[in-house]
Write a structure and sequence with these properties.
470 residues, alpha/beta, Aminopeptidase, Aminopeptidase i, Domain 2, 2 domains, nine-stranded mixed beta sheet, 29% helix, globular
Length: 470
Amino acid sequence: MSENSKKENKVIKELKEKLLYERKNICQTMTVEQIKKADEFCEGYKKFLNKGKTEREACNETAAIAKSSGFSEYKPGGKYKAGDRVYSINRGKAVILAVFGSEPIENGVNLIASHIDSPRLDLKQNPLFEDNGLVYFKTHYYGGVKKYQWTAVPLALHGVVVKGDGSIVNIVIGEDENEPAFSVTDLLPHLAEQQYKRPANELIKGEELNILIGSRPFKDGEDSDSAKLAVMKILHDKYGITEHDFVSAELEAVPAAKARDIGFDRSIVGGYGQDDRVCAYTSLKAIIETTSPKKTAICVLADKEEIGSYGNTGLGSDYLEHFINDLANAEGVHKRHVLGNSKCLSADVCAALDPTFPDVSEKNNAAYLNHGTVITKYTGSKGKAGTNDAGAEYVGEIRKLFDANDILWQTGELGKVDAGGGGTVAMFIAKMNVDTIDIGVPVLSMHAPMELTAKTDVYMTYKGFKAFYH
């Protein structure tokens, strides 16, 4: 090759590096030490997943971590100074953490919002029944699920029962290998000819998600509900509850499996509830490690996102706005000035491109495992319905922040334009006149009983959140 050709090739290479955007697997650019840190970080993350399989449990675990890290319960009207650390729990299902900054609250806050509820099977209010000697719980699925994925897998039961006298019983059964687990039955392939003719979304119907919980009747029982009565006696002996107590219970069936490493190289975390506890844990760790922020740092872990953020523990409620209003009142300013100067990362996951099912993704704008945390300008479906659409200025601000702090990132969207879509809490924060954008971890098998995330992406998301707070 001539000298002129070599020079020309060098110029072209430099132009490509300067002008073109090239996706990169971050495992090829991270150091061995960084990858080791990512692996170590995810050990704590897996423990968080195992301890917090419901929104109540995740809230309790968050409060325990906060208390051990110097956070105290927030008292509205109290006097706080820069560096003080507080938390506030909303009805046992959502939590807000804050670290007071050195700047006046009027300059705004840096807020990260994620959610700690996940798709599952909820017990109905009158769930218990017996049919042909088998005892079941009736369920109502929560959030967007592929119903067939919830059959023939071991399930654990988590939640609370409020008895008639007002006392509360906490229940977790099915997690320990010495405890019984539960399961939704399915047809054997030999007899499923008619079932196969159903549309995929009706392969298992909602009313067929019945959880098998027992089968042995009393020895001398002649009553048609003898097995049901025998199961109820077990529950009464252990927990002191009656069948009528299910009316005031919140019991959730979740996969009984523990979070674990996936792959020969152990590069992936597999576990239930990673949407969105992966962003909850990374944002929690980020604020725990924030000590002297300029702007007050706030982390909110919310409930009810999977069903539209409705209810008084979801971000469709005003409890976050009330919290910020209390902070504003304490310094004699109006909340609208605080909110108008605030910035938010809506911390939620993004769908990762699955090479087995590539047709639903547009490759130039899909998120990939092991390509870093995902900046998602908008979510929604089709014509950007039900979404926040972050302004170019704010996208640029976050991009600049991440680049300055060596945060490896990518952009992504939730599938092709007409393929479907979904939303996050971003639009509820943006509604308060806060600059908001979605940032999170790419996930494979989203909303399945086992979801998959890359450890490097989890770690980069945590680093990005930490940089945002500082």
